[in-house]
Amino acid sequence: MRTVLVTGGAGYVGSHTCKLLAASGYRPVVYDNLSRGQRAAVRWGPLVVGDLTDRARLDEAFAEWRPSAVIHFAALTYVGESVEKPALYHHVNVGGSRTLVEAATDAGVDRLVFSSTAAVYGTPQRTPIAEDHPLRPINPYGETKLRVEEMLAAAEAASGLRSVALRYFNAAGADPEGETGEDHEPETHAIPLAIQAVLGERREFRVFGRDYPTPDGTAVRDYVHVMDLAQAHLLALEHLERGGAGTQVNLGTGSGTSVAELLDAVARAAGRPVPAATAPRRAGDPPVLVADGRRAHDLLGWRPRFGSLDAIVETAWQWHTGALRRRRAA
């Protein structure tokens, strides 16, 4: 059984990826400090509780489990918080990744899949966005992810650590089998926020801007099911195992969904409308963010299985309503 060290594997995309890794014959060893991940989400392999910036603890994990590769999710990921605390984001996301790269290289690991973000592009000059689009992040979160991508490219040249940086667009949905799902605190993603409004867990869903130059005036985003993202990590790992070179790859469907369309999809899943209110646009929110996903298809053979927004929303609805029932029964 091939062992993979999964940093941040107790988080949203990380836990779904661990489930898929285990089903594909790998042993995922989760390395997580549990500051934002959930211990209950670690169900498919061992858990090593440790911080990304702790070199001694990382060395212990590499020595004990001897992974052949690393999948690196661990990071701080809130855009607003990054604006308020840029030094913290650089310390954890860049400094922690540097420590991980050094530990992995010293342990003889030469394969790493990195959880990056479309935030490295900043405000798009053109859509759909391809990987050769200028990289001009507009917040510290995107800046730190770009710095890590640059570090990984330099590491391949210096030490042979090959990596694939996967630039997510909008992760959404939940495990269709209900074993893991989206559990953020605070929650910032649109679909769970809309579901929480329907379930009465928050007063309303806030639509930030209805005056964008889009067909219905609301912002358009590219939503990708979390299990499709997990599949992309597995395919990227297999690409590296075949000796493939390091690269950067967008993960998006190539299809845009407006906020208004998203609310309609949640209403269909719930059987009732989403309480919503209009708020001013947020600074830095572009009208449209949609991926050009051809490289993921051509290089990795990645094809999203959850092609419709309704299919994505339905898995999220089932997860969140199930979680609500469990909380009420506890």
Automatic annotation (TrEMBL):
It is an enzyme of class 5 (isomerase). Keywords: Carbohydrate metabolism, Isomerase, NAD. Pathway: Carbohydrate metabolism; galactose metabolism. InterPro entries: Epimerase_deHydtase, NAD(P)-bd_dom_sf, UDP_G4E. Its EC number is 5.1.3.2. Residues 4-252 form the NAD-dependent epimerase/dehydratase domain. It holds the Pfam family Epimerase. Gene3D superfamilies: NAD(P)-binding Rossmann-like Domain, UDP-galactose 4-epimerase, domain 1. One of its GO terms (biological process) is galactose catabolic process via UDP-galactose, Leloir pathway. The keyword Chloroplast does not apply. Signal peptide: none annotated. CDD domains: UDP_G4E_1_SDR_e (cd05247). Homodimer. Belongs to the NAD(P)-dependent epimerase/dehydratase family. PANTHER family: UDP-ARABINOSE 4-EPIMERASE 1 (PTHR43725:SF53), UDP-GLUCOSE 4-EPIMERASE (PTHR43725). This is UDP-glucose 4-epimerase. It comes from Rhodospirillum centenum (strain ATCC 51521 / SW).
